[in-house]
Amino acid sequence: xxxxxxxxxxxxxxxxxxxxxxxxxxxxxxxxxxxxxxxxxxxxxxxxxxxxxxxxxxxxxxxxxxxxxxxxxxxxxxxxxxxxxxxxxxxxxxxxxxxxxxxxxxxxxxxxxxxxxxxxxxxxxxxxxxxxxxxxxxxxxxxxxxxxxxxxxxxxxxxxxxxxxxxxxxxxxxxxxxxxxxxxxxxxxxxxxxxxxxxxxxxxxxxxxxxxxxxxxxxxxxxxxxxxxxxxxxxxxxxxxxxxxxxxxxxxxxxxxxxxxxxxxxxxxxxxxxxxxxxxxxxxxxxxxxxxxxxxxxxxxxxxxxxxxxxxxxxxxxxxxxxxxxxxxxxxxxxxxxxxxxxxxxxxxxxxxxxxxxxxxxxxxxxxxxxxxxxxxxxxxxxxxxxxxxxxxxxxxxxxxxxxxxxxxxxxxxxxxxxxxxxxxxxxxxxxxxxxxxxxxxxxxxxxxxxxxxx
Amino acid sequence: xxxxxxxxxxxxxxxxxxxxxxxxxxxxxxxxxxxxxxxxxxxxxxxxxxxxxxxxxxxxxxxxxxxxxxxxxxxxxxxxxxxxxxxxxxxxxxxxxxxxxxxxxxxxxxxxxxxxxxxxxxxxxxxxxxxxxxxxxxxxxxxxxxxxxxxxxxxxxxxxxxxxxxxxxxxxxxxxxxxxxxxxxxxxxxxxxxxxxxxxxxxxxxxxxxxxxxxxxxxxxxxxxxxxxxxxxxxxxxxxxxxxxxxxxxxxxxxxxxxxxxxxxxxxxxxxxxxxxxxx
Lengths: 455, 280
Hints:
The structure holds 2 protein chains of 2 kinds.
Chain A: H1 16-29, H2 40-65, H3 67-102, E1 109-113, H4 121-130, H5 136-145, E2 151-165, E3 168-178, H6 182-185, E4 190-193, H7 198-203, E5 207-210, H8 212-218, E6 228-231, E7 234-242, E8 247-248, E9 251-252, E10 256-260, H9 261-267, E11 274-279, H10 283-300, E12 312-314, H11 316-359, H12 361-369, H13 374-410, H14 417-443, H15 447-452
Parallel strand pairs in A: 3-10, 5-7
Antiparallel strand pairs in A: 1-11, 1-12, 2-3, 2-6, 2-11, 4-7, 5-10, 6-7, 8-9
Helix pairs in contact in A: 2-13, 3-11, 3-13, 3-14, 11-13, 11-14, 13-14
Chain B: H1 2-13, H2 28-35, E1 54-66, E2 72-84, E3 88-92, H3 99-106, E4 114-119, E5 122-123, H4 129-138, E6 140-143, H5 155-166, H6 170-183, H7 199-211, E7 217-221, H8 229-244, E8 248-253, H9 256-259, E9 264-269, E10 272-278
Parallel strand pairs in B: 3-8, 3-9, 6-7, 7-8
Antiparallel strand pairs in B: 1-2, 1-4, 4-5, 9-10
Helix pairs in contact in B: 5-6, 5-7, 6-7, 7-8
């Protein structure tokens, strides 16, 4: 009986003489006879990428054809991602802002003052009771006994005062008494004229150094130098103008009048509460000087070993520390909100995927009848859930970019790349996790039952 | 001695069990040992010496459904038969006769409650889920009464689906799928979706899909059931062509006119084989 095959025929076994030869021919020319044992490893390796790509395109197609349903499904994930990124952007923006504007006490400068600026709650209450003011004697003592500083200066604040010129008046001007070296230590820089000098200091001169806001208000088209202004009822002659500094959190930094500290003591306060600014040569030395000042002050005030300081040593780190406390609590709240939305979003995705599996039971049956294994079906639906969630995350990223742009007009926001990556990763993970249950339901369908289901 | 030379040649060519040495009356187990291939636990059964030509062999297949309360429904009650490579067989019977159940078992969509089933020399009835899926992918090409195409995919994508599950890369898939469509005269429509095709065209796409992975057998369940008689005849002509090209075809139907196209009819009734006749 002749064999009919799509492949070159094997000759019958009756002819002994040709037997081996014919088998040889058959062996060498057969190309299509399949191996019977499932060559699962090779199939799995190349198969994984092929079926994954298939799943990926199916996922995008499903998203495309069910736009409204997809949108509603992904709302939770989108909101979560947007919230996360926007909050991170605001915090990031503020960090940069703070680092630039506020924490910049001046390079390598720390300030000895009555209070520690970063104290909170109970500590702060204690400080109100215990801490003593820094007096001129403390300043002079430190000036004479601390070794190796680059500069040491002092300032005393009057607080917000009225300054007048002719018929014009400015309220809430920061009036302070400074030592002459404060121009090197502090934020202000000379724009025109000169700063207060040692002669002014020695003679308790009635001179002042003004900020740009006063120039704008009093001397819009005049040269301010040598003009007399009335500071809190007293006349002072302007000898210098500061360069413009700018605003911090909406507060202008240019609304000030600085006079010599000696003059300040003569006219306004005999025993003012000072802030002593110490400038080091570099960051490392600054820490050394901080310790030295602390030790000297503690000794001077006869503080026992176990007592805390009754003064404050404040550096940029203090401010940054304060700031990070604040942002940490904001961030904690955000994490809570984001987590809730992600979980809700994940459950919604799971629900929709379950419905999708039920809807496509017939299709799954077809795929299984064509050779899709459990893992293929599982992979298909997990990838679908992940891609959907990732799309939600991406939408969240786009929205948050837009929102951050708007926020940065009124306030400050700068989108950090890390937040975007975390947002995308988190969304995908949520999709993956919540997609597992529906995917396994799909994978475990019996092919025949699935095929019998109405499409 | 001759077997050793054959074994060596085959080892050079690659894994190929079940076909050659069986011809000389050597058991499948010895053949596999000679070839140095690993034995899967399930196939350590003693396989009786099968002629190389036997494609499907069943022995006392039973399929029972437990309806609870000690009521058992026997869809198949001890079915035994053989189908050779290259045969064109119809399985015929009224509804409820068990022919669909038998087809599901042959097609590895289901496993028997008891009994054995060898496909191409391998004992199939005790394979794992993944192994069954592999066989469905590579050995069997299904053609259904309701076509069972994916409605949102083009004809081309439908045809290449078995290749996707074989892990075949895109370029090769495209070629093979187009080749399969060429065999059923449907290349011009390859980018159409099923709802843009007539019933006959859809069935031809299904046939192309069944062919694309070069399966051992083509299994058709009432392939003309949803078609008018003229289109039905066209489809039967396609099957005739495939048979002449050397494919093994098993048809399940309740219509005598359709069964008459085959060269052998196995009549099934009440879960048993009633009659097995050659018609051509």
